[in-house]
Amino acid sequence: MRWIRENALSLTFMTLFVLALAGQAVAGMLEFNDQQLVNGLQPVSLLAYVTSSPFAVDVSENWQSEYLQFLLFIMLTVWLVQKGSPESKQPGEEGPGSDEEQLVGPYAKPRSPAWAKSTGLRLHLFGNSLGLTMGTVFVLSWLAQSVSGLAAGNAERLTDLRDPISWGAYITSPEFWNRSLQNWQSELLAVLSMVALSIYLRQRGSPESKPVGAPHSETGTEG
Amino acid sequence: MRRMRTALAALALLLAAGCAVDTAAPARAAARFHTAVAAHQDEAACAMLTRQAARKLPDPGETCATALGDLRLGPGGRVTSVEVWGDDAVVRLAGDTVFLHRFTDGWRVRAAGCEPERDLPYDCALED
Fold first, then answer.
1. Residues A20 and A82 in one domain
2. Which residue in B has a C-alpha nearest to residue A49's C-alpha?
3. Do both A41 and A59 map to the same domain?
4. Residues A10 and A18: beta-carbon distance below 8 Å
5. Residue A106 DSSP symbol
6. CA distance A122 to A83
7. Of A15, A166, B51, B82, which one's alpha carbon is 20 to 30 angstroms from that of B30?
8. How is the beta sheet containing B97-103 ordered, strand by strand?
9. Does residue A128 share a domain with residue A66?
10. Interhelix angle for A129-159 vs A174-200, to 10°?
11. Domain assignment of residue B94, yes or no
């Protein structure tokens, strides 16, 4: 019970994620089968749909943009600040910070992670592991989007009695960039809203907000 | 280490088998369709069409077989290339391009007698 309480945030998001993905699978299959009937083709089962390229491209195009959003947020906040935002460091604190501030190498505490106490490549990898992981998942899911988008797009082109295209032609096609950019713009707007609105607005009790009574000009404090 | 290499090889084989696309079946279906047309077995050829194509082909009062015979499709010839994406395929023959769709009972012809129109849809004598 204590374990559930201590991990309630992750567990809740995991549950919501699974429910939303399942809902997307069912709704996507119903829409796909509706189009199949229009084209005089057979409806597909849920299993066939969730292993198909149309489902894969819809999932991966959203995943890549989310991971890109967090990659940019994590990396840009190292070097850029926003006065008054709880998401930002104080102006003047831009950069990766000193070893003393980051508690690494000789400044590591007894309970610091083992790799934080090391030096060289291990320390560099661990010190950038969050950004590297987000970046890797972004690249892989964008690659998955390009492959599944090519497969789904070519199946659609054949339905329209058109020749299929190559992967190279697909990743320079308007469809690939439309799918990518329509997701990117919404993610970038969401981050901008979070950074800017949190200067002037509050959510009592949330660590994503400043304390209700904190001045608008106060930067980097979380309530 | 050897066990890991064996496991990786088995995984690669499984993935290759899972991702392998069967191009032979649509090629056979397209060739069979053109063989039937060339032999004037129009009813047999009509049975290889998708239900929608077989329904759209004849004018009122006409049968599918009569309408198909009237199209006078040229010979298909040998298969030069096959592309399969999902449940759809295009089979290029020496004398024609044929579009097919995979149903639970096998590949059926959606369009035949097709001429390319640059990046636009093919112009087909028969289509669903």
1. no
2. B86
3. no
4. no
5. G
6. 34
7. A166
8. B79-85, B88-93, B97-103, B106-117, B120-127
9. yes
10. 140
11. yes
Query: Which pLDDT score is estimated for A220?
Result: 83
* Structural domains counted in chain B: 1
Q: What is the structure's pLDDT at A3?
A: 95
Distance from CA of A70 to the nearest CA of B (A): 31
Query: How many angstroms separate the CA of residue B78 from the nearest CA in chain A?
Result: 19
SS3 B120: strand
Contact A199, A85 (CB under 8 A): yes
Q: How confident is the model at residue B4 (pLDDT cuts 50, 70, 90)?
A: low
User: Confidence class of residue B18 from pLDDT cuts 50, 70 and 90?
Assistant: very low
Query: Does residue B4 sit within a domain?
Result: no
- Partners of residue B86 in chain A, C-beta under 8 Å: 52-53, 151-152, 154-155
Number of domains in chain A: 2
Which residue range(s) make up the domain with B48? Answer: 22-127
Q: Do B88 and A159 touch (CB under 8 A)?
A: yes
In a domain, B12, yes or no: no
Of the partner residues B86, B103, B121, the one whose CB lies closest to the CB of residue A162: B121
**A166 lies in which domain range?**
53-223
Averaged pLDDT of chain B: 88
Q: Which residue of B has its CA nearest to A43?
A: B103
CATH of residue B118's domain is: 3.10.450
Chain B partners of A160 at a C-beta cutoff of 8 Å?
A: 121
Smallest Cβ distance to A155: which of B86, B103, B119?
A: B86
Is residue A123 domain-shared with residue A154, that is, in the same domain?
A: yes
Chain A interface residues facing chain B, Cβ-Cβ under 8 Å?
39-42, 52-53, 151-152, 154-155, 157-164
Q: What is the pLDDT of residues A90-115, one digit of tens each?
A: 999 999 999 999 999 999 999 999 99
* Unique residue bearing structure tokens 């295209």: A165
Q: Pick B85's closest partner by Cβ from A40, A155, A161.
A: A155
Q: Which of A156, A145, A147, A151 is nearest to A178 (CA)?
A: A145
Give yes or no: residues A160 and A65 share one domain: yes
Instruction: Tell whether the model's pLDDT for residue B15 goes beyond 90.
Output: no
CA distance B66 to chain A (A): 22
Task: Report which of B88, B16, B29 is spatially closest to residue A153, judged by C-alpha positions.
Answer: B88
Q: B-chain residues within 8 Å CB-CB of A40?
A: 50-52, 128
